[in-house]
Amino acid sequence: MQRVFSGIQPSGIPTLGNYLGAIRNWVPLQDTHDAIYCVVDLHAITQPFDPKTLATQTREMAAALIACGLDPKRCILFVQSHVHAHARLAWIFNCVARLGWLNRMTQFKDKAGKDREAASSGLYVYPNLMAADILAYKAVLVPVGDDQKQHLELANDIAEKFNHDFGAEGFFPRIEPLIQGVAARVMSLRDGTKKMSKSDPSDQSRINLTDDADAIALKIRRARTDPEPLPEAAAGLEARAEARNLVGILAAISGTTPEGVLREHGGKGFGAFKEVLAEALVAHLSPIQAEMRRLLDDPAAVDAALRHGAEQAAAIADPIVTEAERIVGF
Ligand code: ADP
Ligand code: NA
Which residues does the record give as ATP binding sites (predicted)? Predict the structure, then answer.
């Protein structure tokens, strides 16, 4: 079986973007692949965070993943900081990746914002850690949202340079991104040019998986749109980022395509369409929310599952990273 690896930061409550672009696609891979999923707390401290709530947020993220359908019996689910192989390999990769490569990463520019000098050096080398996350398991397939494509290309550059420079042809495999679905990039509800993100300062910009029916209805009602009604065909969405985003979300949540949504709702005004969308979101998310609450009633059980996952993950990653260290000459 091919090995897949993916991760998510415990930097807030997972958003609809995380769910449609990543988490939802991780579920079926549990049965067809050797699937490893990680709550990446080392990544979460690259940006401002609260040490008092980090561990709680990490557990909540794990509970959200399980509630979305990840089953610790069918995949390896663990917390990044519990497996030291990630940090060990990341240091080696810090010394393999070139500054020029990192300078081209658009996510750093987005996340660092205007005051780039004030960003942490961890945020800058984040893609090196991400490469280590994947390659510590020699995973070959990485199911992620479209926003991570550039980082995966960098991971391949790192793997290739490591193999070449240290005379270890074929040691690290090539990685393929697996970018799936009509909503591989869900955009902010307030600005159709920005991706929806759990670390966006505006809560109105995103649907959190834990938002209740009223919050969802309000956020969708306030979502930015243009004054035109829905077009009759998908071609009519091209220059309308906000309209395209909302149509894409309904398509993804109801298992159809943007064309399918427009066949049913083309010609409607956004007022009516937003009601349909909010209702579909509430129906889809409420069972996940109920399961998440049930899991968090027994935090010790979630923690025990994560500890077991870390043991399974370390059993794979430790020998690979020890071999990488030997190749480097340690
Ligand atoms: P965030 O930016 O919300 O903090 P992460 O960096 O933790 O998200 O990413 C977790 C996963 O969710 C990644 O696979 C990423 O590609 C995916 N993802 C994040 N935001 C979106 C989005 N707006 N649309 C689609 N996928 C997304
Ligand atoms: Na599996």
Answer: 9-11, 17-18, 145-147, 186, 195-199
Q: Which residues line ligand 1 (CB under 6 A)?
A: 6, 8-9, 11, 15, 17-18, 21-22, 144-145, 147-148, 184-186, 195-199
Ligand at minimal distance from the CA of 71 is 2
- Residues 125 and 94 sit within 8 Å (Cβ to Cβ): yes
In a domain, 20, yes or no: yes
- Name the pLDDT band for 215 (thresholds 50, 70, 90): very high
Range of the domain at 75: 3-184+298-328
Cα of 75 from ligand 2 centre, angstroms: 5
Q: How far is the CA of 316 from the centre of ligand 2 (A)?
A: 14
* In a shared domain, residues 311 and 285: no
Least confident of 84-88, 181-185, 257-261: 181-185
Tell whether 94 and 177 lie within a shared domain.
Answer: yes
- Tens digits of per-residue pLDDT, 224-256? 999 999 999 999 999 999 999 999 999 999 999
Contact 157, 99 (CB under 8 A): no
pTM of the complete model: 0.94
**Coil, helix or strand at residue 32:** helix
d(CA 103, CA 125): 10
